[in-house]
Amino acid sequence: VSILELVKNFTSLTPQKLSEFLSTTLALYLSKYPSVKVFVNREQIDPTAQILFDTSYKLDDVVYCDELHSYELQVIEWKSAKENEIFLCDKEGFPLISYEKKIRGTSTYSYSVYLKSTHLTKLSHEGTLSLMDLEPSLSPVLNKVEGLIKEHFRKRDHEKSRELIDKWKNEGVYPYVGKAENIVEDAERKVFDIMAINVIKYIPQFDNGDLKLKKFQFKLLRHIVGSCPDDLRTILEEVLSLPKEKQTELAEILRDASLSAVISVSKIITDRLKFISGLENVLFHQNTRKVFKERSQLHKIMADNTWFFGESFTLSVNDKSLTEVLRVHLEKQGIDIPVDEKVTRIDGSVGIVDLMLTRSIGKNYPDEREHIIIELKAPKVNIGQSEIEQVKSYAYAVAEDSRFNGLKTKWNFWVISNELTTYALRELKQKNLPEGAIYQAEEMTIWIKTWSQLIQENKHRLGFLQNQLNISYDREDGLQFLKQKYAEYTEGVVFENESQDEYID
């Protein structure tokens, strides 16, 4: 075969390029049939001399046209830099077509992938192999192949990283000691390893720097991984200054490994458990319960933690009038009409609602909503007749105002405090009402809640995850959490080193 009059800068068929192309394309075929020899400029091509690592994987069989076809995936890593390719081959490994698919997270390797099956040969004969993902019988296989390739190089990364991590341990700069205590720390270590190894990869001089500085920087990275996993993206962009492609690649590795999610969930659960512990302290300690104020302290803290009242609810109204409740109610239902006339209670006064929480009922009822109107009381205030009449006045105002009617909505009205008077206890003894309810009609229910009841419900709800993630905390952790996160609202309230017998059961 002679090819003449090529353009001057045409390089694809230079001896070196042609040799590399034939080596990767025919690697499996030439290894299977050693009697077949291929020469370029009288030099024999020997792909085996260029192989750094070679492994194979069995895939699930495929039934096509009532015939069973086995599949095998072979991954070859090359010693020298080559273009990464995926070949769809016959069962002998002879390439039928190249699969133009770039696998993220593998760009630091030089490799070729060979997918072998009689199924591919049959599709080639039928002229449908070139459809690739659009061929129904082939699409699931290609999806599996992509996952296997990612998993292969993830394991290879892990193998290569062990040597580097052992080096850091010997230098005394690795920020973890011993084995991971639980699945959260195990996930944290893996994320740290991924980030640290990529720091070295893209900033090589980092590993050759001063050991004291490197130890400090590794401690800082560990803190970010364990406490602020969402900031990892900022590190990729601003600290490492990685190209967009590399940022996406590394972010996908973290996402595929589900590691950041474990850390994030663990932090959320830990913070919530500490919050509950701290809230329990200030609500029931003999000293703090006397000075803890409803509007300027308790109200502001709880408005920032609406999950405490129900995971699926979001804050809709905060310290606003019943008229604002109506506006939000109509807005949530997609009704755009002006609210010119105020909503008032039966006595004509304007009620101010502490909190209003809202949620959609569910996928099967997209137009239905549920609201919770919450009246918070300071722990020193017992729920009695006046507190009950107050929350009832809000409920009756909604029931009597026709602008609230005609929409699919469930209304719940809560009044919450530490203790109940005998009047409240009698209200709770009404027959044919759910436990804790003092009024129910159509889609409206009025409830009396205690802080101890809500705290126990939240502890129970979070208890399973706490056990699974092996999260531990104590009373002091809860106090410190409230002091640090809500310093402006807890000044003069949170006490340290409080004795156990000063708490009210």
UniProtKB/TrEMBL annotation:
Superkingdom to which the source organism belongs: Bacteria
Protein name: Type I restriction enzyme HsdR N-terminal domain-containing protein
